[in-house]
Prior knowledge:
Layout: H1 2-14, E1 19-23, H2 26-37, E2 41-47, E3 54-59, E4 68-70, E5 79-80, E6 94-99, E7 102-105, H3 106-111, E8 116-122
Antiparallel strand pairs: 1-3, 2-3, 4-8, 5-8, 6-7, 6-8
Family: Belongs to the universal ribosomal protein uS8 family.
GO molecular function: structural constituent of ribosome
InterPro entries: Ribosomal_uS8, Ribosomal_uS8_sf
Amino acid sequence: MYIDLLIKIKNAERSGKRSLKTRYSRMDYAVLEELKRYGFVKKMDIKGRPPKKIIEVSFSKDRPIEGIKFLSRPSVRRYGGYKKFKPVKSGHGIMMVSTPKGIMSGVRAKKNKLGGQTLFEIW
């Protein structure tokens, strides 16, 4: 799940590692693609074949993850319309939203006028 992935990335970055290997899931890969778009992740590669498919993630030195705030959890899901999406940390962070058109940042969701489940904020 994306929560475990983000905690692994944050801990690996703080311990000085340059990359990380984790199990593949479509949701994790979609979150990583969006993080790559905003510079939090440098590159990711899918290796192996099912059921042992893994993602190798390389971190970006330019923009380390400083903090994460999880808005939705498996027990409590939070939903919002695009009008409620506000800038994170005065524009220095992003919010991730799961929309009917896939996982995207709050900025992209607002531009496309899409609401959905608010997953997390990262800065």
